[in-house]
């Protein structure tokens, strides 16, 4: 198949990092055109989204390897010119999940997703998406043939024109959390491809999904209701059987009530785990779904206690139809109200999420101490992507995104930069999938509604709903499922 991606390298970005950008700051620094009240106006909100998707599309166009179809983690950018200067040529299943989800939405007809894929000519975006998906599945299949012991799941890996290889330290390891994210994107895309008549490509993704469903218990289930956070493979070229896998770190399990639930639901709905082990899995997880009260002038809000209360923890709401379950929806919306109320009360011009700082150091412990189980050590680094769950909660979340984009050098010719340090006044000179495309996917509405439709078609939706409703009802009061008006910010 010939590549339709003539826009993909209009120029080599790595040869221009020491030159002035092709665009002037007044072109890509659009945030100051908008005010908080504009996001109550549908026309002005649409204009903001058009600006957002155009510039984020410039990142999307260079954020993967055209030959192999695989995502790069992103780029380091020059702190002055804001042009890419070094590719971060490694990736993981989490970045792949975002890529595939957006490609699927474009094929389904989402015009903004199509702008991301081809910001020069969105009319050819579907052709481009199909080409990328074919290259991507070919890379996956090549890896499966070479190392069948991974059972269809991905390690952290380095990217090249020829495919991928495990990143140093990951030659015999596979993470559950990232692959739970990927599994649902593959589930969505094979259905989308089938519905749009791309049956041959759909069959290849369906085969991969079936492989993951078949091997997930052997690889990740450790017994007693426990999911291995990282599975170690004893022989990477052996056929996937349970005896070939062990837990990599003692007592390190994926039992969180956050994005790790994507793997838990994948195993629950599609594996051969069995009724008793499934009961044990959710019984163990129930112990970690904790309520914490956030005090506001209007009364206390009951929200899920976070690990650090980083926005990253809400990734599962982008993907699965939690918002169809009234109690889960109420708790989620109350949580976003608490997130924004905290920043308003503390006079913080932004939101918190685990993120790289301006020195390139990854700060996991960013969040809200009052709502966290672990110690929060970073309260002065804000990130645009921290707005993604708030955007998912309502268009007012775009006002928070816009606020963070107004800080110096937070807007680049490739969309939003990674983060901003409020103490030093420095933006992180990085562009990454997690730091950008979670926001984009939230602005597209996530994929939870589309996956709900797939689950209904496959007869799995009722079980999802029942498990989710029971899970939240055991921790939170279900008598009142009314929701607050989120993002009423202090004057």
What features would you describe in this structure?
The chain folds into two domains: 27-60 and 290-491, no CATH class; 68-288, Glycosyltransferase (Alpha/alpha barrel). The radius of gyration is 22 Å and the shape is globular. Helix 6 (176-195) runs antiparallel to helix 7 (199-220). Mean pLDDT is 94; it is low at 6-11, 15-19 and 485-491. It has helices spanning 25-28, 42-60, 93-108, 111-117, 125-146, 176-195, 199-220, 261-270, 275-286, 315-319, 326-345, 388-393, 397-405, 433-443, 448-457, 461-473, and strands at 74-77, 84-88, 90-91, 157-160, 163-166, 173-175, 230-233, 245-247, 291-296, 299-304, 355-356, 362-363, 381-382, 411-412, 415-416, 420-421, 426-427, 430-432. The protein has a three-stranded antiparallel beta sheet. Helix content is 42%, strand content 12%. With 491 residues, it is an alpha+beta fold. A hairpin with a 2-residue loop joins strand 4 (157-160) and strand 5.
Write the layout of secondary structure elements.
Layout: H1 25-28, H2 42-60, E1 74-77, E2 84-88, E3 90-91, H3 93-108, H4 111-117, H5 125-146, E4 157-160, E5 163-166, E6 173-175, H6 176-195, H7 199-220, E7 230-233, E8 245-247, H8 261-270, H9 275-286, E9 291-296, E10 299-304, H10 315-319, H11 326-345, E11 355-356, E12 362-363, E13 381-382, H12 388-393, H13 397-405, E14 411-412, E15 415-416, E16 420-421, E17 426-427, E18 430-432, H14 433-443, H15 448-457, H16 461-473
Antiparallel strand pairs: 1-2, 1-18, 3-4, 4-5, 6-7, 7-8, 9-10, 11-12, 13-16, 14-15, 16-17
Helix pairs in contact: 2-4, 2-14, 3-4, 3-5, 3-6, 3-14, 4-5, 5-7, 6-7, 6-8
């Amino acid at each position: 198949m010939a590549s339709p991606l003539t826009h993909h390298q209009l120029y080599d970005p790595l040869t221009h990092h020491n030159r002035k950008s092709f665009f002037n700051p007044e072109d890509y620094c659009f945030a100051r055109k908008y005010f908080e009240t504009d996001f109550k106006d549908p026309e002005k909100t649409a204009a903001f989204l058009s600006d957002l998707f155009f510039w984020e599309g410039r990142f999307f166009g260079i954020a993967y390897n055209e030959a192999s179809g695989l995502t790069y983690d992103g780029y380091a950018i020059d702190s002055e010119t804001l042009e890419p200067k070094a590719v971060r040529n490694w990736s993981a299943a989490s970045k792949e999940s975002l890529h595939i989800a957006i490609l699927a939405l474009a094929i389904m007809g989402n015009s903004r997703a199509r702008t991301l894929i081809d910001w020069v000519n969105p009319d050819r975006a579907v052709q481009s998406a199909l080409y990328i998906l074919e290259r991507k599945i070919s890379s996956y299949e090549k890896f499966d043939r070479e190392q069948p012991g991974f059972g269809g799941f991905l390690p952290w890996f380095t990217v090249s024109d020829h495919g991928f290889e495990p990143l140093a330290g990951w030659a015999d390891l596979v993470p559950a959390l990232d692959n739970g994210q990927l599994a649902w994107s593959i589930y969505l895309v094979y259905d989308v491809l089938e519905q749009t008549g791309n049956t041959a490509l759909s069959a290849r993704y369906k085969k991969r999904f079936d492989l993951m469903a078949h091997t997930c218990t052997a690889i990740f289930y450790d017994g007693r209701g426990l999911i291995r956070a990282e599975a170690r493979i004893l022989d990477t070229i052996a056929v996937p059987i349970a005896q070939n896998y062990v837990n990599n770190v003692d007592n390190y399990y994926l039992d969180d009530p956050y994005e790790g639930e994507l793997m838990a639901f994948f195993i629950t709905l599609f594996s051969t785990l069995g009724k008793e082990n499934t009961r044990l899995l959710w019984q163990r997880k129930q112990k970690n779904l904790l309520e914490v009260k956030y005090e506001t002038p209007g009364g206390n809000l009951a929200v899920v206690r976070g690990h650090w209360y980083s926005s990253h923890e809400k990734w599962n709401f982008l993907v699965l139809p939690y918002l169809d379950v009234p109690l889960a929806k109420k708790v989620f919306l109350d949580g976003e109200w608490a997130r924004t109320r905290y920043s308003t009360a503390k006079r913080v011009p932004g939101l918190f999420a685990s993120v790289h700082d301006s020195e390139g150091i990854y700060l996991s412990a960013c969040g809200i101490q009052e709502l966290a189980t672990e110690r929060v050590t970073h309260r002065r680094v804000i990130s645009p992507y921290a707005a993604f769950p708030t955007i998912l909660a309502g268009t007012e979340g775009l006002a928070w995104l816009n606020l963070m984009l107004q800080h110096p050098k937070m807007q680049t010719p490739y969309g939003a930069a990674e983060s901003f340090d409020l103490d030093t006044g420095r933006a992180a000179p990085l562009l990454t999938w997690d730091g950008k495309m979670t926001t984009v996917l939230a602005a597209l509405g996530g994929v939870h509604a589309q996956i709900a439709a797939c689950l209904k078609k496959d007869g799995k939706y009722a079980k999802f709903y029942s498990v989710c409703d029971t899970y939240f009802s055991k921790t939170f009061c279900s008598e009142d499922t009314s929701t607050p008006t989120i993002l009423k910010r202090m004057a």
